[in-house]
Amino acid sequence: MTTTTDAFDLQRIQKVRKLFLGLSLLAILILALFTGTWWGQGAVHQGVEAAGLGAMVLSIVGRAWCSLYIGGRKKAEVVSTGPYSISRNPLYVFSYVGAFGVGAQTGSMVLAALFVVVAVLVFHATIAREEAWLSAAFGDAYESYRAQTPRCGPDFSKWRDEDELKIRPRFFLTTLRDGMVFFLAIPVFEAMQWAQAAGWLPVLLRLP
Predict the structure, then answer these.
(1) Cβ pair 113, 103 in contact under 8 A
(2) 188 Rama sector, left if φ>0, alpha if ψ -120 to 50, beta otherwise
């Protein structure tokens, strides 16, 4: 059983996580304002952006897929099938993929990697606190699941699924909507690159 305090603490953790993530990404965004790439705006730059777009699409689809299984049940039971059978935190794993996709819209692999590092660092603390809460809430059931399933993985050899799922459309659509925010990176970074090419923003650093 969970208590009101437990639920409140978990919600507070999520809010703090989002705040720190937002501030960290804002700092990288400011860095990107004055950063160019070694290869300019050519084929390599475009290739990195295209790879990033693919990563964002994969992230959005993956997060929506996970939401079909979790469906708001995280506080009510241990979800251990579908993507949760191969990773305890598939939503976060797909978020890392999305972070790479966002950073790749700069055309720089270094900045793309930096976005991932920030996401991993922020979510690492969140995952640890959520695991402590889940362990306290579900006891042996969660400990058994944790022993069998990697924190991030994925370990495809452990795949198991269900014949039927109870879908919560609102939760699915909310997850899908939230993922669409990744696409805002495209016009934002394109505008930055245009401003740099026009001489409105100085390029103080060039990265691969």
Answers:
(1) yes
(2) alpha
Instruction: Give the single-character DSSP code of 163.
Output: S
Q: Which residue has the tokens 């959520």?
A: 130
Q: How far is CA 45 from CA 25, 40, 127, 137, in A?
A: 21, 7, 34, 48
Question: Are 59 and 182 contacting, i.e. CB atoms less than 8 angstroms apart?
Answer: yes
CA distance 136 to 78: 12
What CA–CA distance (Å, rounded) separates 38 from 159?
42
Q: Which of 59-73, 92-106, 190-204 has the highest mean pLDDT?
A: 92-106
CB 101 within 8 A of CB 53: yes
Structure tokens at 48: 């990195």
